[in-house]
Write a structure and sequence with these properties.
Elements: H1 9-21, H2 23-34, E1 43-48, E2 53-58, E3 61-62, H3 64-68, H4 73-76, E4 80-85, E5 94-97, H5 98-114, E6 122-125, H6 131-143, E7 146-149, H7 156-165, E8 170-174, E9 177-179, E10 182-184, H8 186-194, E11 202-206, E12 220-222, H9 223-229, E13 239-240, E14 244-250, E15 258-263, H10 265-278, E16 286-289, H11 296-308, E17 312-316, H12 327-335, E18 339-342, H13 344-352, H14 356-359, E19 368-372, H15 378-388, E20 395-398, E21 432-435, E22 447-453, E23 463-464, H16 468-476, E24 483-491, E25 497-502, E26 506-509, E27 512-515, H17 516-523, E28 529-539, E29 543-552, H18 561-575, E30 584-587, H19 601-608, H20 625-632
Parallel strand pairs: 4-17, 6-7, 6-8, 7-14, 8-11, 11-12, 16-17, 16-18, 18-19, 19-20, 29-30
Antiparallel strand pairs: 1-2, 3-13, 4-5, 9-10, 14-15, 15-23, 21-22, 22-24, 24-25, 26-27, 28-29
Helix pairs in contact: 1-2, 5-6, 5-9, 7-8, 10-11, 13-15
The structure holds adenosine-5'-monophosphate-propyl ester.
Adenosine-5'-monophosphate-propyl ester (PRX) binds near residues 372, 402, 485 and 486.
């Protein structure tokens, strides 16, 4: 027996030990008992972190959609697979059963095929949180096309970069999207992006807001008429265990975004197994993750993990504040949601609104609360625990990353005693290590260091699309034979982990990873700007906000600084998206630099955080005098 469902702490320790001592036997049993394979594997795990190379279930054949859809038809054909809750509360919600999902995915898959998409081709999906988003993801997987979902809040320039990086042939989008009281014209963003994407032959357009848009003849097609004509039977393409399933871009501290490549079998096994245990999912539950499918959380824990378990997964199109800040609670009540998984930034925004909106709703269906994306601060943790969970629904503070594919460090609800701000214990099969600055592992408890993972797990990203050397350099070069996460963490007296935050130049704003370099590159495009540096500073709701230090070409620039600030944020919005806008912009005559010309961000960070009492060692600075100027004019 593979212990697919862990129910008490002793069992967790026992299964954990087994997963570490005999990882191959352990994962083989899980894979064998709970999934549908067209052919079994020749070997369970082959790996070498020095290369780096990891393969799971080598030689196995499968299709993930047969596991997420077809195999449930015998017992769950009429069960709701996807429960769609629209932006507007007056519009009816939609229940898509497993049988309907099967037909809709197959129709979509046939449309893709008819448009010439084949196994291995890349398809960019730029859609709001509507059913077509999940369906198009699954349709790609059905025919073996590699989906690359781009969050629909990204700008045209960001979309262009992502489309071209992996040579997408097709873009799937909509005429627009609803976001609270606003509508967003997605199609014109796509049109703008495609001016510089010669490889895109076809654009499929879903109708959502019924706005008047322009369609380019021979390139753009309305989706619905094509679906109407398509057959609802489509054989699943038989995939190899290690065939790429999707590419998902994540920011790096330098350079262009990294297209993380996830493959088929290991990703499926790990997301399904974590979903079952981390949310203690039971057959009649209604599970809701508020993330967008544009991020890894949506891929793994709105679509693949839940559907692989035959679950009902809720997809919400809107925002927590529309029509008011009670919307989340209204949805929990309306659909009797049992598991609710959200981000600390949302919790803080909701907490600010007080508890009245919660008290108006019946939240008694809730059993498990989740948190993901950034460290959850103590105040937010207690607010969530007391008011939403009524001290009876455990909070699972789940730590993981786009690169890890699935949840890595987390409590198991009703199994692991929780502790505020702690992600607690490694999940089954995960071997964390804390490292010191010299690359040595720090053993024992009550220690702090850089978080690495020592041993492969099934859903680790296999490469960066088109740049395996960057993959090696980013994740496997800092600590020999270890995957380096980029995060710092501490381990307490009982071995619980608390993630302390990024130790590189990635800043997490409202749960979104933002690299400093791409934002600086965008700012430097402004004709008046000579140089810039971005750091993070604490923010009540966003967790972190961005602080920019900008040197103007003409130091005596007479133009109004407020106008310049607006223009700089406008450029950032155009290059990346509104999520990367700066909260504070300080104009300065210089930036503190080392003799080798590197900006000393540590000092800029301290000034932005108003911690100027102890700036640390500034003796290696080329221009120490600039520090006082920056402190005096700090915002
Ligand atoms: O710094 C960690 C933080 O988010 C980073 C990963 O971001 P991304 O790839 O966008 O994936 C987010 C959703 C999985 C991590 O390196 N992070 C994520 N979850 C937590 C967290 N930090 C603290 N606690 C968490 N629970």
């Amino acid at each position: 027996m593979s212990n697919y469902h862990i129910k008490h702490l002793e069992e967790y320790f026992q299964v954990y030990r087994k997963s570490i001592r005999e990882p191959e036997n352990f994962w083989e049993e899980v894979a064998e008992e709970h999934f549908l394979w067209r052919k079994k594997w020749d070997s369970v795990l082959d790996w070498d972190f020095a290369k780096p190379e990891v393969t799971w279930f080598k030689g196995a054949k499968l299709n993930i959609t047969e596991n997420c859809i077809d195999r449930h038809l015998a017992t769950r054909a009429n069960k709701t697979a996807i429960l769609f809750e629209p932006n507007n509360p007056n519009e009816p919600s939609e229940k898509i059963t497993y049988e309907q999902l099967y037909k809709r995915v197959n129709k979509f898959a046939n449309v893709l095929k008819k448009q010439g998409i084949k196994k291995g081709d890349r398809v960019c999906i730029y859609l709001p949180m509507i059913p077509e988003l999940a369906i198009s993801v699954l349709a790609c997987a059905r025919i073996g096309a590699i989906h690359s979902v781009v969050f629909a809040g990204f700008s045209a320039t960001a979309l262009t970069t992502r489309i071209n990086d992996c040579d997408c042939q097709m873009v799937i989008t909509s005429d627009g999207s609803y976001r609270g009281a606003k509508t967003i014209d997605l199609k014109s963003i796509v049109d703008e992006a495609l001016k510089s994407c010669p490889g895109v032959k076809t654009v499929l357009v879903a109708k959502r807001i019924h706005s008047k848009i322009t369609m380019k003849t021979g390139r753009d097609y309305w989706l619905q008429p094509l679906l109407d004509e398509a057959s609802s039977d489509c054989n699943a393409e038989i995939m190899d265990a290690e065939d790429p399933l999707f590419i998902l871009y994540t920011s790096g501290s330098t350079g262009k975004p990294k297209g993380m490549v996830h493959t088929t079998a290991g990703y499926m096994v790990y997301t399904a197994y974590t979903f079952k245990n981390v949310f203690q999912y039971k057959e009649s539950d209604v599970y809701w993750c508020t993330a967008d499918v544009g991020w890894i959380t949506g891929h793994s824990y709105i679509i693949y993990g839940p559907l692989a378990n035959g679950a009902t997964t809720l997809m919400f199109e809107g925002v927590p504040s529309y029509p008011d800040f009670g919307r989340f609670w209204e949805i929990v009540q309306k659909h009797k949601v049992t598991q609710f998984y959200t981000a600390p930034t949302a919790i803080r925004a909701l907490a600010k609104e007080g508890v009245e909106l919660i008290e108006k709703h019946d939240l008694s269906s809730l059993k498990v609360l989740g948190s993901v994306g950034e460290p959850i601060n103590e105040e937010a943790w207690h607010w969530y625990n007391d008011n939403v969970g009524k001290k009876k629904s455990p909070i699972v503070d789940t730590w993981w990353q786009t690169e890890t594919g699935g949840i890595m460090i987390t409590p198991i609800p009703f199994v692991t005693p929780t502790k505020p701000t702690y992600a607690t214990l490694p999940f089954i099969g995960i071997q964390p290590a804390l490292m010191d600055e010299n690359g040595q592992e720090i053993k024992g408890n009550q220690v702090e260091g850089r978080l690495c993972i020592k041993f492969p797990w099934p859903s680790i990203a296999r490469t960066i699309w088109g740049n395996h050397e960057r993959y090696r350099e980013t994740y496997f070069s800092a600590y020999k034979n270890n995957y380096f996460t980029g995060d710092g963490a501490l381990r307490d007296e009982v071995g619980y982990y608390r993630i302390t935050g990024r130790v590189d130049d990635v800043i997490i704003v409202s749960g979104h990873n933002l690299g400093t370099a791409p934002i600086e590159d965008a700012i430097n495009e402004h004709p008046a700007v000579a140089e810039s540096a971005i750091v993070g500073f604490p923010h009540d709701i966003k967790g972190n906000a961005l602080y920019g230090y900008v040197i103007l070409k003409d130091v005596g620039e007479t133009r109004n600084h407020d106008n310049l600030r607006k223009e700089i944020n406008q450029i950032i919005t155009e290059h990346i998206g509104p999520i990367a806008k700066l909260d504070k912009i300080q104009f300065t005559s210089g930036l503190p630099k080392t003799r080798s010309g590197k900006i000393m961000r540590r000092i800029l960070r301290k000034i932005a955080c108003k911690e100027t009492a102890n700036l640390g060692d500034t003796s290696t600075l080329l221009n120490p005098e600039v520090v006082n100027e920056i402190i005096e004019n700090a915002l």
